[in-house]
């Protein structure tokens, strides 16, 4: 792991502006030419409890936030004691209380007193920004501009708090100041979390209908797209529940829209009947599933990778689907586009499987608003022949052409029954076999278009297999003795994966679930017996330091 990486963490009760202050700091670091990755933790509470925000930054690329903290702010007493394992002998801890801890360099910071001088107790979080700005040599004007834009009518009081925090640190902690290297050639100047990145992919992939019921941790995409609907002339609908959302997406797609919905595990459970409907009617539809720990409500604001097998097997009966999983913000953007393209090209459901860790964590990214990715559309017949057959069996790929409702001569039936080539319901055994085989042929055709796995450090003698956000943590851990295989497409599984894996005698699978669901999946497709399995399932992410310690 890089020695040139710094991690700042802020902790306090919900409602005290923990995340808002953290994101101001993140945006200031990006404008100061740093790369970063942030992460926040919060219980399912509106007020009180214990919330944290942390950001790891460097002049080099940061693929995942780090566990060990360099600078810690407790904006209320009693909030630093839960993080002793994250402190090193060099960690500096600021809190408005007295302490003689030998676990860190503890400094009593009179936050309440400074806040009263600034004009309000709610400015404590902004005071911490001022202190951090001095300690890491961040241009105060950069943070001032962001504070002014973010706080609107409260800008004056917060700007004063920022200045007071900076001056207090300047007068009292001059020897603690550090000057981290910056990267003037930094090519990723924007700040987005994973949900926003997927949302940008949806917009740039020409998505025009998004329906979703709010469910943590997928709600961010709904809010993001709702804010963009006027600018991009898209429809964003908040229906009564997830069942309605999924069926609206299938209906909108049938009518010609490029449509998607987003949810987490409990909401996705309500959507699976609509996924089967999309499967049998061969209707393009994108489902964005952002995982949290289950079962049932589980841990609603924490992270997990427990929905892998659920996503792959979602929907009753047998029909082709595609399951993708991004490991980074860039990939979340790319898969937002790819999911729409693949759904359209193969007229089938596509599931993008993310997790809370990536979905709600921010990083410096490309300016997605300026990207121009390739967009692919359905095989639409605008002037169909008189004998138009929507589900024509005369296809090698399994994909038949379709028409938009209202196209003269292009009328057909589309319902949940098995059907013949025109869409008429049938229970004929021969036609049933032909239609099932027709749809299944898509799986073979898909293999050339689905995102391919990536292998890093291929010449190493040992191999780690991971997917989703965990793959980025493995990369950040810096294990030089291991090759890293990141699987981007979780279904369909390309059998060529076996050739890659079989080249290594020592194979470790790492996942954020309790049963190593990826191991189960790979075993179902070919002879696979990993040497070691590492899992974590307490709702917290697998940090690079943890992976390094388990495998060093």
Quick tags:
3 domains, 20 strands, Rossmann fold, 552 residues, 17 helices
Indicate the overall shape. Answer: globular
> Under CATH, the topology of the largest domain is which?
Rossmann fold
CATH class of the largest domain: Alpha Beta
Structural class, judged by helices and strands? Answer: alpha/beta
The largest sheet has its strands arranged as 9-8-10-11-13-12-18
Biggest sheet details: 7 strands, mixed
Number of strands: 20
Assess the beta-strand content as a share of residues: 15-25%
Q: In the CATH hierarchy, what is the architecture of the largest domain at level 2? A: 3-Layer(aba) Sandwich
Low-pLDDT runs: none
Helix content: 25-40%
**How many helical stretches?**
17
- Round the mean pLDDT to the nearest integer and report it: 96
């Amino acid at each position: 792991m890089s020695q040139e990486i710094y991690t700042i963490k802020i902790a306090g009760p919900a409602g005290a502006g923990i995340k808002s202050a953290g994101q101001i700091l993140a945006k200031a670091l990006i404008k100061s030419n740093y790369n970063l990755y942030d992460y926040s933790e919060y219980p399912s509470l509106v007020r009180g409890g214990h919330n944290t925000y942390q950001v790891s930054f460097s002049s080099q690329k940061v693929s995942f936030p780090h566990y060990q903290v360099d600078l810690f702010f407790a904006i209320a007493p009693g909030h630093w004691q839960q993080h002793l394992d994250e402190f090193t002998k060099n960690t500096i801890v600021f809190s408005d209380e007295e302490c003689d801890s030998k676990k860190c360099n503890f400094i009593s910071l009179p936050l309440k007193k400074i806040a009263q001088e600034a004009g309000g107790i709610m400015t404590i979080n902004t005071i911490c920004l001022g202190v951090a700005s001095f300690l890491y040599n961040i241009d105060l004007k950069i943070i001032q501009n962001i504070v002014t834009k973010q706080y609107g009518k409260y800008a004056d009081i917060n700007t004063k708090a920022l200045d007071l925090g900076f001056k207090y640190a300047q007068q009292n902690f001059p020897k603690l100041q550090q000057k981290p290297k910056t990267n003037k050639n930094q090519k990723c100047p924007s700040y987005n979390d994973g949900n926003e990145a997927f949302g940008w992919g949806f917009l740039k992939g020409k998505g025009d209908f998004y329906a979703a019921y709010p469910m943590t941790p997928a709600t961010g995409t709904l809010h993001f797209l709702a804010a963009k609907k006027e600018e991009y002339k898209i429809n964003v609908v908040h229906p009564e529940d997830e069942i309605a959302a999924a069926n609206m997406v299938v209906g909108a797609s049938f009518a010609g829209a490029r449509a998607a919905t987003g949810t987490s595990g409990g909401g996705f459970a309500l959507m699976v009947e609509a996924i089967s409907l999309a499967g049998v009617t061969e209707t393009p539809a994108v489902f964005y599933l952002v995982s949290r720990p289950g079962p049932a409500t589980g841990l609603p604001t924490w992270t997990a990778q427990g929905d892998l097998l659920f996503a792959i097997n979602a929907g009753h009966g047998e029909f082709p689907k595609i399951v993708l999983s991004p490991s980074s913000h860039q990939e979340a953007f790319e898969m937002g586009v790819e999911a729409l393209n693949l759904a359209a090209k193969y007229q089938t459901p596509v599931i993008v499987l993310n997790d809370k860790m990536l979905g709600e964590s921010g990083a410096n990214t490309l300016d997605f608003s300026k990207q121009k990715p390739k967009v692919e559309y359905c095989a639409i017949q605008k002037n169909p022949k008189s004998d138009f057959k929507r589900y024509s069996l005369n296809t090698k790929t399994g994909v038949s052409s379709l028409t938009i409702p209202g196209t003269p001569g292009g009328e057909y039936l589309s319902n949940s029954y098995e059907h013949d080539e025109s869409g008429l319901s049938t229970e004929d055994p021969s036609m049933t076999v032909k239609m099932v085989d027709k749809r299944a042929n898509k799986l073979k055709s898909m293999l050339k278009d689905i995102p391919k796995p990536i292998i890093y450090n291929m010449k190493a003698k040992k191999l780690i297999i991971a997917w989703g956000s965990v793959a980025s943590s493995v990369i950040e851990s810096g294990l030089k003795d291991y090759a890293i295989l990141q699987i981007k497409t979780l279904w369909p599984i390309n059998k060529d994966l076996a050739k890659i894996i079989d080249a290594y005698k020592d194979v470790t699978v790492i996942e954020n679930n309790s049963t190593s669901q990826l191991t189960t999946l790979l075993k179902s497709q070919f002879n696979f017996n990993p040497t070691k399995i590492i899992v974590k399932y307490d709702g917290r992410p697998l940090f690079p330091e943890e992976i390094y310690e388990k495998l060093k």
